[in-house]
Design brief:
By secondary structure, the chain is of the alpha/beta class. The protein folds into two domains: 2-100 and 302-322, 3-Layer(aba) Sandwich (Rossmann fold), CATH 3.40.50; 102-293, NAD(P)-binding Rossmann-like Domain (Rossmann fold), CATH 3.40.50. The chain is 35% helix and 15% strand. The chain has eleven helices and twelve strands. The strands form two sheets. Strands 8-7-6-9-10-11-12 form a seven-stranded parallel beta sheet, with helices on both faces. Strands 2-1-3-4-5 form a five-stranded parallel beta sheet. α1 (10-23) links the parallel β1 and β2 (26-29). Belongs to the D-isomer specific 2-hydroxyacid dehydrogenase family.
Length: 330
């Protein structure tokens, strides 16, 4: 069996080689992502693993089918880079890694929240200018005095809520499928609108779907409490960014921590030092002091990387040997 990993980072390569030695399966790693231009690298391979944020070219699916490829695996929980309809039409199994390390993202969401609540960026800038004064601009709230809203209470959302509860905060949650384990420390609301009207900080933990595209938009922001915070470590398409900018400009929101952005595939995981980014909305985000932006890095821990690589490789091998995997997306 011969597999190929597209978009391989240096930190992933070691985990892939350990898995290869353990299983006897050949794993070739390349840094390029899967495109029509790199499709020739698939020749002679049995299985494909990818790690990329942009959608696959629709021509790739029939091309892979013609090459005898039966599956595509993503080294991520999110799978919005795939067109599931096209994959099915071309006989391609799709797998993801649904639970690689929920703690990694949950811990980052809390860290980003604390950074916003305690004005850490502003304090750092003040200190760099030798402004050591105490002033109202850096006066902070305590987490235990806040109501925290968790939107999406699966593995990651539940752990995020539990961490916030450890600070003594009141936790509210919204999910179409409430989590019984989360009810121990979380009060569910019947609607998302009810949640946003009541909480001081919202942390999003949902997969991207057609139904939640731009779910957080002008209408929903208008219902949020004045001076509230938004944290998004999920998917960029859930938030309509220009509406978020308006909410920040009007002071409806006090700040936002974004680990993801709806057009991030143009630059995430690329070193663009010295290069201009041709994206007016993103540049507007970067110009604001009330935005804490990170490049889709909440997941990025040693444990998560190892689990993502091993989980995706296991899923690929299972599909190729048995025709099924617990990680198959149907």
């Amino acid at each position: 069996m011969n597999l190929i990993m597209f978009g391989t980072r240096e930190d992933e390569r070691d985990a892939a080689m350990v898995w290869s030695e353990k299983t006897g399966v050949i794993v070739d790693t390349v840094t390029e992502i899967l495109t029509m231009e790199t499709l020739d690298k698939v020749k002679g391979k049995d299985g494909i693993l990818i790690q990329q944020t942009g959608k696959l070219n629709e021509k790739i699916y029939p091309a892979l089918a013609e090459m005898g490829i039966k599956q595509l695996a993503t080294r991520s929980a999110g799978y919005d880079m795939f067109d599931l309809k096209l994959a099915k039409e071309n006989g391609l199994f799709i797998t993801n890694v649904p639970a690689y390390s929920p703690n990694a993202i949950a811990e980052f969401a809390v860290t980003a929240s604390l950074n916003m609540i305690r004005h850490m960026d502003l304090i750092k800038k003040n200190v760099e200018k030798h402004d050591f004064s105490w002033n109202k601009a850096i006066l902070s709230r305590e987490v235990r005095s806040m109501k925290i809203g968790i939107v999406g209470t699966g593995r990651i959302g539940r752990i995020t809520g539990e961490l916030f509860a450890g600070f003594g905060a009141e936790i509210l949650g919204f999910d179409l499928y409430p989590n019984d384990e989360a009810r121990k420390f979380m009060r569910y609301t019947d609607t998302l609108e009810e949640l946003v009207r009541e909480v001081d900080l919202i942390s999003i933990h949902m997969p991207a779907t057609d139904d939640n595209f731009h779910l957080f938009n002008k209408e929903l922001f208008a219902q949020m409490k004045d001076g509230s915070f938004l944290i998004n470590t999920a998917r960029g398409t859930i938030v309509k960014t220009d509406d978020l900018l308006e909410a920040l400009e009007s002071n409806k929101l006090a700040g936002a921590a974004l680990d993801t952005y709806e057009n991030e595939h143009l630059f995430v995981n690329k070193d663009l030092k010295g290069a201009a980014i041709d994206d007016e909305i993103f540049n507007a985000l970067m110009a604001r002091e009330d935005i804490f932006y990170t490049p889709h890095i909440a997941f990025y821990t040693e444990t998560a990387v190892e689990n993502l690589v091993e989980g995706s490789l296991d899923a690929t091998r299972n599909i190729l040997t048995t025709g099924e995997s617990a990680f198959e997306i149907k």
